[in-house]
Design goal:
The protein has about 325 residues and is mainly beta. The chain has helices spanning about 225, 230-245; strands spanning about 35-40, 45-65, 85-90, 90-100, 105-115, 120-125, 125-135, 150-160, 165-180, 185-210, 210-215, 250-260, 265-275, 280-285, 295-300, 305-315, 320. It folds into two domains: about 20-55 and about 195-320, outer membrane lipoprotein receptor (LolB), chain A, CATH 2.50.20; about 55-195, Alpha-D-Glucose-1,6-Bisphosphate, Chain A, domain 4, CATH 3.30.530.
């Protein structure tokens, strides 16, 4: 997945820490009604941001009864197990074959019960998913299962946000048979829910020949990219550089008074549409008179994967000062 598919600013895409009201993280000294200015980012500078992410999908498709449980089974042909390992499910231990599939971008390990092929766990470099509940007999193969209305299975999902590996989002994916047809088919409903909040701190680690890198982040940023966390103009430059001018459509511009981490501020509200590989992201920026980016909101309808919504609030930054 592209680094910016999840949010059309430098921070992106798909949280263990419980959501905490952002007021607890606001600077102790606030200047209500003042103005903030920003400076160029330097090595060691830190910026704190509050993320709120919501992903919802509710999709029902018609499939063959024999295919209804495919999402719970390992079915890649021609792959031999790399090793075996015992995995716990519902307080029982099951010996699993571990299949390792690797390409240039990612390595995925599937832990499938040796006798049935049911996948109990999937591990990637950026997270994992594990089976947490099912009313199926996990010792049976897919052809041995009796699929009826109400047959269901659910996986917990834990994924790191690309470019912000310290930020993890957690959710669940549940698939349930809701109707049996007369021609060997059935309706399979899949519901995915993620609704998490987290405070993230980014610290600039190095600047080398125009390449900016943050601590615990392998991505290489331009100067605009590194400053797009807190500077509206830099953020827009970074979006255009990433997706091209033709992919960006400027929308309505208004004004508002909002409560920020620095107090109440008069802001410009700028609507922007960004074409991200065919998916249209509706982005709203809230920035001050001196271009400081206080808040960003984004929604995008991801084909076959529901609606993703994200908001990002600037909480504090070494590069943002109050006048």
């Amino acid at each position: 997945m592209d680094k910016k598919v999840i949010i059309a600013i430098v921070i992106v895409a798909i949280i263990v820490v419980a959501g905490v009201c952002v007021y607890f993280f606001w600077p102790k000294e606030q200047k209500f009604g003042g103005t903030e200015v920003y400076s160029d980012i330097k090595v060691g500078d830190s910026t704190s941001l509050d993320f709120d992410i919501s992903l919802t999908m509710d999709d029902t498709e018609t499939v063959q009864i024999s295919e209804a449980l495919e999402g719970m089974y390992f079915d890649v042909i021609g792959i031999e197990p790399a090793y075996s390992q015992s995995v716990s499910f519902n307080d029982k231990q099951y010996m699993c074959d571990v299949y390792v599939i690797a390409d240039d971008d990612e390595t995925v390990e599937y832990y499938a019960i040796q006798t049935s092929g049911v996948v109990l766990k999937v591990e990637t470099e950026d997270g994992f998913q594990k089976l947490v509940s099912t009313n199926c007999d996990v010792t049976k193969t897919i052809s041995e299962q009796d699929v009826t209305v109400g047959t269901t299975y659910s996986y917990e999902i834990v994924v790191a946000i690309p470019g912000l590996e310290s930020m993890m989002v957690t959710g669940a994916s549940t698939s349930t048979v809701t109707e049996i047809g007369n021609g060997g088919d059935c309706k399979l409903r899949t519901v995915v829910n993620i609704d998490e909040e987290d405070l993230v701190e980014v610290v600039l680690e190095s600047i080398n020949a125009g390449v900016y890198k943050f601590v615990d982040d392998d991505y290489e940023y331009t100067k605009d990219g590194a400053m797009s966390y807190y500077a509206y103009s830099c953020c827009m430059n970074d979006i255009i550089d990433e997706y091209g001018k033709d992919a960006v459509k400027m929308g309505k511009k208004t004004t508002a008074n909002i409560l920020t981490a620095y107090g109440e501020r008069d802001v410009t509200v700028q609507k922007v549409e960004v074409d991200i590989d065919g998916a249209i992201a509706d982005v709203t920026f809230y920035y001050g008179a001196k271009d400081v980016l206080y808040r960003t909101e984004m929604t995008v309808q991801m084909e076959d994967f529901g609606e993703l919504a994200m908001s990002v609030d600037l909480i504090d930054s070494d590069d943002v000062k109050s006048l």
